[in-house]
Specification:
alpha+beta; Beta-galactosidase, Chain A, domain 5; eight-stranded antiparallel sheet; seven-stranded antiparallel sheet; disordered N terminus; disordered C terminus; Apospory-associated C
Length: 513
Amino acid sequence: MQAGARPSAAVGGANWALPPPAGRRAAAATCQLPQRLGRSTTARRSPAATAAVDDAPRGGADAVQPPPADVQTATAEYLQHCQEEYGRPGLIEFSAGAGGLPRATLLHPSGTRAELYLHGAAITSWRHSDGRELLHLRDGNAFDGQQPISGGVQIAWPQYGAGPLPTHGFLQYLHWSVVESAWREPDADAAAEAGEDTTDWRPTISLFADTDEAWAAAWPHRFEALYTVCLAQPDPPELSEVEQLRQEAEQYQPWVKRQAASASAAAAASSRKGAADDAAGKRGWHSPGAAAMTARTEEEAPPATPSVLRCILQIHNSDDKPLSFTTGLRPHLATSDLATHAKFVKTLGLRGKYTLDYAANPLEPRLGIEEGHNVTFGDMQQQDLLFVDAGARGDVLFCPGTPAHFHLQNKKGFSDVGVAHPAAVAPAEARRFVQLAAARAVRKITLQPGELWMGEMVLTAHNQYWDLPPWELDDPAGVPIPEQNPEQMPTLRARRAVLAEIAAVQGETVPQQ
């Protein structure tokens, strides 16, 4: 390689070229790199560093042929540049993934991690700190740098769904360049004083793509796209203005704190006395079942901190004429086997929304209204639904069949929610995932020359079930329990049985829950 030349790698017929300092990075500056990594954020350019990373292929990549030796060498040089310019060992690392395609890995100190391929800007893996893989990567991916990487989290643009362009557009075909990385290095003292977690470093990476001549005939518009992915923990809840004023006032009222502490101590003492009285047999009865249930409850480990995957897509119209598009971010969420866990795999939060059903005819959807509390998938019927104007915030929950759930939020730019399940097209594989998308697909977005659009999706993975709504309190049959040891989570029916046992002995009435 000549001195001063920029390394590039031809992978699968594509040219991976480093963006010139005044070129793509300057163009990407038109889009706004996110500045809200946290209150105590210190965004830093990554230092020169290299690190050994796991190069093992994953998903459907076992049959992928490795690239030629010269391509491997060029790719290695490109990845080394990315690691030195944008990486930080233990937070942001670059490696050759399946098929030799460049891959970035975001590593969170909590133990969560995400993998992002530069081909199509596809997020192919997102693992919780407990080791669970949260995304489903479709079977049969070639990882050849030509076809989209199917599954994970895919970008749909400038077309969501079917239309004159390939389904979900062509950004998923393009090769993206790394233009920025960032993380926050919390000040331990300041974080401790504010009661914040000092482990949330929020590794972040931004990729850039622009007009591709191969698609100019099919879509004759010039554009610039910036895609930012951040791995984080949930933000602390924001206090209302009234709550902030109350807390500020209490700082100058120490007697209020003393009264609260005294009341709390008295309540604790009373509780301990009541427990001691029961233990001494003053009521003359003891329930082994209740004791066992209490012991199991006390032994339950606290839930792991939720993992947050924040994805921001920005589109800049760099043309001299308007351009219109629809778009979406499409997570494929891994589920338990629908053949055995169908009653537990469901959404929550879409009741009463208008729907467009594309399953029968993608070009002529049927208008309807979602009447059920949950969208379910047990009948293994083809589903391709778009929930219209699901809200600026989205706030849709999804249970993957275990005592866990996802929380999808449309933070900005996205207004619709897509739900898809390809049961008719791939029935065997459809037993293992459901697609839940943040979208802007019903009403097109039109950008005038020079205008910028931004859409943000926040996907949070919790390792506990959502708060039970009233109908599940009445009938908890659809509430999942841990498979490895069901005794760790007694069902509501078991709890009621113990209460009934106690009431029968004491001659009391069990309150209805």
